[in-house]
Each structure stands twice: as C-alpha cells, then as structure tokens.
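In response to a reviewer's request, we include the raw inputs and outputs for one of the modeled complexes. The two entities were modeled together in a single run.
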Amino acid sequence: MSALRQVLEEVRSGRARGLDDLAARVGVSRDEASAMVDHWVRKGRLDVTDLSAACSSGGCGSCPSGDHGSPGCGTSGPVLLAISVRRP
Amino acid sequence: MTEVSVRRSRSAAAVLLEKPCCVDGEDAAPVGAPRVVLVGNPNVGKSTLFNALTGARQHVGNWPGKTVAVASGQWRPGSGPAVGLVDLPGTYSLVPDSPDEELTREILVEDPARRPELVVAVLDASNLTRNLYLAAQIADTGVPVVVALTMVDVARSRGVDVDPEALSTALGVPVVPVVPRSGQGVDVLAGVVAGALSAPAAPAVPSLGDDLDRVVAALEPGGPASRWRALAALERADGPAREIAVGLVEPGTPDDEVAEEVELLVAEARYAWAHRVLASAVARRGDRVTWSDRADRVLTSRWFGLPIFLAVMWGVFEATTSIAAPLQDAVQSLFGGPVSDGLGWVLTAVSAPEWLTGLVQDGLVAGVGQLLSFAPLMAIMFVLLAVLEDSGYMARAAFVVDRLMRLMGLPGKAFLPIIVGFGCNVPALAGTRILRNPRQRLLMGLIIPFVSCSARLTVYVLLAGIFFGNQAGTMVFGMYVLSIVLVVGMGWVLRRVLFRDLAHEPLLLELPPYRRPALRVTAMQTWQKLRSFLRTASGIIVATVTVVWLLSSIAAPGAAAGSSFGHVAPEESLFGSVSQAVAPVFAPAGFDDWHASAALITGFVAKEAVVATTAQTYSAEEPADVHQAGALGPALRDTFTATSGGHVVAAVLAFMVFLLAYTPCMTTVAAQRQEIGTRWTAVGIVMQLAVAWLLAVAVFQVGVLLS
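The model returned the following structure tokens for the whole complex.
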C-alpha cells in the first residue's frame, strides 16, 4: 500500500495519536504526512477542523459570559486541529 | 487607487498575458517582452518576492472576466531586457479547487497564447513536500522553470537542511535560495532568470515510475503542455485513454471508480517522486527532541495527563479563591455599609416611600453588592484561564480530556463543547453543531447542562467560603471535578440506554506549539469577559430582584390578617408561599427551607440571580442584620443547621450538588430547544431535576451516615 493510502487508513483506524505518530507509522516525514493529509482533505475524504471555530457566533449572542461572538471560556489561544474521516 | 488607475491596471494585467503585442501604461512591459509568472502555494512569500522584484512598478486588479485579483508589473532581471511579471494567486495544485487555482491552470495549460516564457516556482523549504507536488505539475506543463527557494531559515530551525544544489540536480531546474523580505538572493535569482530566458529549456520530467511514464508518453498529443494533457486525459479516463486507464487499476474496479483510482495512482506516483527528491536534497538532523516535545510527553501522558490537568485546575481555583477573598470582603463591606447607608439616608432625606427604600436597600444594593463582590474572583480566574489558554496548555488539556471522553464512549470531538460549557452552556449547545451525527448532537445536548458554568461558580464560592473556610478552593475544585464526572457518567449511561446506535468516530488530534502568553491579549480577554459577565448578570439580577421583591410584597391567600402590599411576613408572601410549597421536596436532602427553595426557583431563571435572591430573602426577614458585612453567613448557617438536624456540611454539599446538576437557566433551555427540539428539551429538564434531586439526597444521606 502506498504512503498516501496508508495515511488515509491510519486516520480511519484512529490509531495515530498525532501527526508525528502518523508520520512514523507510515514511514514518511512529518512534512510529507501533513501534505498527504491535505491531499485527502482536498479530495473530500478527510476533514480538518480548527476547533477554535467550533462555537458558532449565533450561540454566543445570548450567553451571559459571551462577548461579540466569543464564548465565555474563550478559545482564542492555540488550539487543536482535529483530523477526521469525512462521512458522505 | 483611483478608479482610473484600477481600470488601467486591469488592462495592464491583460496586456501582459493576453496581448503581448500591446503596451498599456508606463509600468507595463515593453512590446514583445518575455512573460514570467510567479507560481506557488499560498503563504510561501510569493507576493513579497513579487514586491521585491518589481518595486513600485506594479498594478493589482481583477483578471478580465474573473473575480480573481492578480498583481502584474515590470521587472528587469539582471542586465537583461525588461520582462512582464505576474504574481498568480497561491495554489496547491493545477487540478483546480477554486477560481484562483483555475486561473493558474488556464494560463499554464489551456491557452497557448497566454503561456508564459518562464515560471518562477516559489517553493517553501519548510513545507517542501506539498510544494514539490505543485512543482511536479508545473514541470509537466513543459514551461521552463526556475525555483526560488524561500523559508530556508525556518526549515533549518526545525532541523531540516535543504541543499539547493542537490535539489537543483534532483529537479533538473535551477534553484536559488531567496529571502524576499530582505532581498537576499534576489540578484542571483535575476541572473538565473535572465540566463533561463536567453537559453530556454524545458524542465526535467518528474518520473511517475516506468509503467505510468510509458503510458503517458504513448498518450502525449504533442504541442504545448503535451505531457500535462496526456496525464489529464488519463486521470479523466476518457476517450483513447479509457482502455489504458482500465488496464492500470485493479481488475474488477467499477467503471465509475476507474478515473478516481487512476487519479490516485498518479498522486501516489507524484508523492513517491517528491519522497525521492527529498531523500536526495534534504538532511534532517536526527530526531530532534525539543523541550516542547518533552513537555508534551508528560502533559499528555496516558498516566500523568489527567492528574496534571486536575492539579492545574485545582491550583487555578485555590489561587482564585484565596487571592480574591480579601478583595471580596472589602467590596461587601463597602456595599453593606457606606453604600447602603448612604442611599438609605438620601432616600429618607427626599421622603421616599418605604417600599422604595426597601427595594433599593434590601434588594438592589444587596444584590448588586453581592454580584460586584465576585468581580475580583472572576477577574483572577479569567486571567489564570487566559494564561493557560494562550500558552497552549488548554489544547493539551483538551487532548487529555478527549481521551477520557472516548474512553467513556462519548464522541471524540465532544470535549470541545464541554470545555466551552465551563464558560457558559449556551454557546456550548451551539458548539454541538461540530458533530455531524444528529444523534451525537442530541446526546451532547442532553449532557451539556451538567457542565458547571461560570455563573454557578459564584454560588459555590459563597457557600464554600461560609462553610468550608480554608478548604473553600478545594471544595470549588471538587464541584468542577464532580461536574466532569457527571458529564462523563451521564454520557456513558445515556449512550448505553438510548444511544446504542452511536458508532465510534476515529479522530487524529494535532497539538499546536506552545507560546509565551501575551500580556495585552490576556488583559483584553479578561476585561472583555468580566465586562460582559457583569453587564449581563447585572441586568438579570436587577430584573430578578425586582420581580422577587414584587412577589415578596404581595400577600398570599391565607396570609395573616392586616397583611397588605409591602407589609407581609416574607413566608406569607406570594413568593414565600410558593417557595414553602416546594421546600418539603428537599427534606430528604437536608435543605427543606423556603430560603433555599426560593434561591433554587430563581436559579432556574438564571444562576447569576441565586446569590442576590438569597441575600434578598434574608434581608427581608432580618433587615437589621444583613446590612452588616458577612451577615449572610450566620443566617445561612442557622438555616442549614435547622433543616439538616445538625448535619450542616452534608446539607450544604447536597445543596451545592443540586445546584450543579439541575437546569442551568432559561437561556440554556431556549438554546437546548433550538438544538434538540421541544420534546427532548422537556426530557432533559426532567432528567436534570431527577438526577439533581437523587444526587442531593444521596449526598445528604451518606453524609449523615458517615457523621
């Protein structure tokens, strides 16, 4: 199986703990693994979600702790990227 | 830029690539000048390089017939003649996903009249793989290429050394390292471009392996971009390429999947080519373990991650309560003494009616005073949380909590709305939309109200301060731990009872780098959150206090003779009688007192109002005492002592647990209804009340047994 297909399979299986782990499992560099994840995202097979944007602004308008679309706990710092399989 | 100059700039861009016979404007290239285009991924320094090459001699405008902005200008590479230079939009691939990318493909492949004489491929050395993928596609078009290699210093800082000469050999084109911002390497690039223009040569063909190379060569139609066209036909698997494509894929591949499979084969071959190029031109300095890696090994460890997270959060709440305590006392003293007395004096001086004095002193001042006494506490907590967040630790905490969520059978991404819920449940409910599966959203919509929001914190702090003294911070922390346990436990139970159909969703989480928290960002975040909390909470408190005062002033049916508006014993008022009617429900939990049930009733509207209502109900009953600072403490202690039969700690804990678990506020109910519908919202409210009551009873009864 090619590295490109392996990347997709590793994400599907949920075995990899992060991009470094994914790269090690596939036997490529982190840079290559990242490019291949992007490839699958472009092909619509994977999703990369910037979790800082998870809270819709619509939900914060009536929040006692919210402010101008920001949630009360704040999510402006460095955030996780969630890479998951896109469902049809 | 004026309207006239914009029109002229569009025309200039068109001239450079559409009508090379013409000249428009003094900044455009001369008649017959060679055309050079800059192509590269987004954010590789392409536009900075364009600015460095053209200086002020450039225009920016939409490409004719498209809403795609391109910059064009004149550049004189070395001592050679001037050329027309166009900065094409950043693109990841010549197989377009957007109008920007389509324009690049059109210029390089579709229209021979627009084909440039040279492509300067701007490649980011720190992300070389995806850049090489595009470089391979550019080489397939057959247009002569010079590579401008940027971000070499960034790559080096990551332990990646790119050898330009080796890269040039592997690619078969000149490679020039440049630093666009400083202009370093630009002169060398100019000389190499001038040389390439004077002796044009097609780039080396990126080999896709013997099999693919052979069939592509057989399909080449000849003429410009011949190899690219052959590959495109093969990837579409149409026309004469169909039979060849079918021969390349696994036997038995469905007809409608042949094109997709061939496209994948080509992509695999390009990545394999990029891998070979990297192997020959890039040296990685071992497996460098940075301090960030070492920290992550501990902070996200399977064994230590969760205890460290809990210890950090304990530290936050301990520091918050201990630092804020003297400040809270000062604010309470101010409002309980000078402010209340001063307003009372003013109202008496202007002969204000008795009811107005009562409303202001016993209701508004007491309520707003209690609220403002929490301002230092909230500010300190917001500062600490902002520092944790801005440093990148919160992302690690999310990573750790995510693992816990999945362990308990909850959806992988579910931790995020939960973490948002610690600020407020309302945006957390909206945040459940990140879950694609409606059943997952429903499950999350049902358990998010168990996440302890910041409004509940004020009540915890008040009660913990009164009843647990030096252990207040630990008790508050314990409530948050209990909240997490409740969320996970209810998620676990609901999934096994009502949501057995939910499948596990695999997920890969990528941690961001650590960074030093910025003072300005921290201060701004803290101020915004504090201001917003106080603004909204003060509105809720004023409205609730007024309504409670009004209901407390109206005599309930059956009140003592002589009772009238404003002259009624609190427990005989409309509010008091409703609260008294509810109170017996809480007898098994040890707090069957109308003050407690009154606070819980207003807490159903908004938790921000609980403290104010508590102050208000005691104020109405013991006006002489509650004007003194800290009078609420003894009053509450007396109440819980009486209702619990002396088991005060158990009763207070039961009350706090009930407060944590029952319906957060009416706004949350409205948001819940929007997300999961009326029926499930009703189910949720019943579930929250039932769980809260059962837990409170359990806590009290166990507490009694243990004591």
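As requested, we also summarize the result in words. Residues 52 and 79 of chain A are 6 Å apart (CA to CA). The first strand of chain A starts at residue 46 and ends at 50.
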